[in-house]
Write a structure and sequence with these properties.
It is a single chain. The protein has about 240 residues and is mostly helical. The protein folds into two domains: about 110 residues, no CATH class; about 80 residues, DNA Binding (I), subunit A, CATH 1.10.30. About 45% of the residues lie in helices and about 5% in strands. The chain contains nine helices and four strands; from the N terminus they run ααααααββαββαα. It has a two-stranded antiparallel ribbon with strand order 1-2. A two-stranded antiparallel sheet has the order 3-4. The structure holds zinc ion (2 copies).
């Protein structure tokens, strides 16, 4: 497009300029002001992006939407997320986003440590989560004193927010509130991670402790697990 250069050839400075322009536009849109995308595009082409065409900048903006969408962060409505890029460019776009404080990568990094996971979940639960997390198709087994799995904090936070304090197994309110004011529910993987279940929102439910124990220890645990698929529409049997 335009210069004949490949999209991978964008320099870090160019990617940062694109991210900077994007975040500026996003702030305008989020504040309810009218966004003039063509004007902002022109400004970028008068600066660091002088070698880029209007079309290639527009496409870059959609790449940035893709990365924000993957993090359940709001993106500019007019820049529909484009198909995923190769890991190399996607990584460089994320680095530019981090450099511009668009998000904190630590908040999203999967962890096998329960305490760490819950600290991340707590932070993510307090922000607006747009769309649905991509999750982890094949959670990586990590060896410690016992086997455990790398888990996506975004998936757990999203499932808890969806449940909104009501157990997805029995429909009752969570039994109590935590000191931080949030309702206490546990997130269970309907097909257990140990049985190669995914860490996707289509395999995770928020349950009260009774329903959670029932899933693991009751004589009717299989029937109860099966009933979750009818009760919770987003679940998909694996
Ligand atoms: Zn319950
Ligand atoms: Zn469980």
């Amino acid at each position: 497009m335009g210069t004949g250069k490949k999209s991978e050839d964008w320099s870090d400075a160019e990617l940062e300029a694109a991210v900077d322009g994007y975040l500026k536009m996003l702030a305008i849109e989020r504040s309810g002001q009218k966004l003039n995308k063509a004007h902002e595009n022109r400004l970028l082409r008068e600066g660091v992006l002088r070698e880029r065409s209007k079309g290639s900048i527009e496409y870059r903006m959609r790449n940035i939407s893709t990365e924000l969408n993957d993090l359940c962060l709001p993106y500019i409505v007019g820049y529909v997320p484009a198909a995923h890029l190769g890991a190399g460019v996607a990584h460089r776009i994320r680095a530019a986003m981090i450099a511009k404080d668009a998000f904190n990568p630590d908040d999203y990094a999967p962890t096998a440590n329960d305490q760490e996971l819950n600290a991340k979940v707590l932070k993510l639960e307090q922000q607006e989560l747009v769309g649905t997390p991509r999750g982890i198709e094949k959670p990586q087994r990590v060896s410690g004193t016992t086997y455990t799995f790398l888990r996506d904090p975004l998936v757990k936070a999203w499932v808890l927010k969806q449940a909104n304090g009501v157990c997805e197994g029995c429909g009752q309110d969570a039994p109590f509130k935590q000191p931080n004011g949030l309702h206490f529910l546990e997130v269970h993987h309907v097909k257990h991670l140990a049985n190669d279940g995914t860490d996707l929102v289509t395999n995770a439910v928020a349950l009260c402790p009774n329903c959670h124990r029932r899933c693991h220890h009751s004589t009717d645990r299989e029937e109860f697990a099966a009933s979750l698929y009818t009760k919770v529409k987003r679940l998909k049997p694996e």
